[in-house]
Amino acid sequence: MTKSSLPKQPAPKRPAKDRRALGLVLKDGLAHLVVHLISRLPLSMNHRLGAAVGALVARWPNRQRRNALLNIALCLPHLSEREQIRLRDRNLREFGKTYAEIGYLWLRPVEQVLGLIKEVRGGEWLRRENGKGLIVLSPHIGAWELAGLYLAAQGPTAIFYKPQRYLDDLIRDSRARTGGELAPITPKGIRVLIQALERGEFVGILPDQEPKADKGAVFAPFFGEPAFTMLLVNRLAKRTGAPVVFLFAERLRDVCGFRLHCIPAPEGIASDDDAIAARALNEGIERCVLTCPEQYLWPYKRFRRRPEGSLKIYTGPLDDAHALRHVGRLREG
């Protein structure tokens, strides 16, 4: 039998693990390219682009659109159904702006980015006194990346940080541009936060996402709905005696820029009672959200984890009528 007559052997398949790794590298590379391209646009154009994408998301049934309406209808029942839908549609346009502007905030010169801040309300609450550190909480409202950059520019800052699958190096480099030290969401990272507070520094935390671990979290009301809520802020405040304030960056309508808000945390956030502390944390987030509700991260599944025996929230058909009927069933029991 000649060599040419031998049956061809199939090329060896690349192991699934290698294929996944290659896929992650390619997707990460594409994400970097998109972010760098968008960062070259003027911020006003970024906002128009983001709003257009958000308007498209709001037009056709999809999970982001449904989940935002479910959250708004649950948390803001005083609004009529028409008002809830209108708020959801505005929110998705703002949601688009948030992601369209991120490349600009990450990659433009720091002076240019901080120059977008047109006003700071309550800035006196960011003062550190008597050698104590300050715990600064930035909910997912408006431009939370800008809030973090501003905080780190005010003095030494440790920022609690969740490593990301994509763009992780870009995120870390950006957040460190004004001097922030990134502390990963690990026991080692928590020690970094404690040490920073003991040195009298700032600590920045995003407080409004659902903890994955059972330990160190409890259910507490968020706009009247039970939300699985972190106790880390409470633990840090009790251990170090550091005050707690909220900081967020509201996107302005009339000019291309932002207004920063600093709001003191409600009493009880350092309570020995976990339920009181978690309730105070969520009350503070509520106050921030109500300042500009259209800019909150409503599509996020904040109530994914439910108390035992409770109905699931993020389920069912994607159209608005079914979502609103589902909220009615949730309220009935």
TrEMBL record:
The entry's keywords: Acyltransferase, Cell inner membrane, Cell membrane, Membrane, Transferase
Cell location: Cell inner membrane
InterPro entries: LipA_acyltrans
Chief site of localization: membrane
Single GO cellular component term: plasma membrane
Any one biological process term the GO annotation gives: glycolipid biosynthetic process
GO molecular function annotation: acyltransferase activity
Keyword DNA damage on entry: no
Transmembrane stretches, start-end: none
Name of the molecule in the record: Lipid A biosynthesis lauroyl acyltransferase
